Amino acid sequence: MGQAYVRIGIVGSSGPGKSTFINSFRGLKAEDKGAAPVGTKETTKETAEYPHPEHDHVILVDFPGALFKLQGSDWQPVRFNMKEYTRKFGDKMKECNVFLVFTSDRVHDNAVWIAAKAKEMKKKVLFVRSKFDRDLEDVRRDKPSFFAEK
Question: β-strand 6-12 against 98-103: which pairing, if any?
Fold first, then answer.
C-alpha cells in the first residue's frame, strides 16, 4: 500500500502572506529555488503545489487570493464571485484534505465564503491570523496607555 498524501489548501484574501507561509513551512526564503513567488502585488494566479522537502507526502496547495480577478492582462480588485472561484478552482479544492484560511486583519466575507465552500466539501478548515505583530505595534504606537501597567 502506498503512502497517503496530505494536501493542505492555502486560501484566503490577497496579501496576508500565504506564499510566505508556504516558503517558511518548507524552510525556504523567497529567492530560493523552488520557493513560492511572493510580492506586494497579487503573485499567485493559478494553483501551485509545493511538497515539503523532507516529508514529500505533505503537499501545500497555494490558491490565488480571493479579492482579485483577471481584468484584461492585469489583476484588479473586484467583487468576489464564489461561483466563478469554485468553477475555476473547485476540482483542486476537492483534492485537499484540510484548508488553512489566511487573513491579516478582519475576517472578510471572501475568506468566510471559501471556508464555507470547503466545509460543504466535508473538509476541515482552520483560520490563520497573520501579521498580528504589525497590528500590535500600531496599537502600541497609537495608544500607549493601553499597554501601561495598571
Answer: parallel
CA distances from 59 to 18, 41, 79, 98, 112 (A): 14, 24, 30, 11, 23
Structural domain count, the chain: 1
Domain extent, residue 33, equals 6-147
pTM above 0.85? Answer: no
Query: Is 85 part of any domain?
Result: yes
Q: Which pLDDT belongs to residue 137?
A: 86
112 φ/ψ angles, rounded to the nearest 5 degrees: -65, -40
Residues 6+ apart with CB under 8 A from 24: none
| Per-residue model confidence as pLDDT tens digits over 10-64 | 988 777 888 899 999 999 999 999 999 887 666 677 899 999 989 989 999 998 8
Distance, CA of 27 to CA of 102 (rounded, Å): 19
Q: Which domain CATH number covers 42?
A: 3.40.50.300
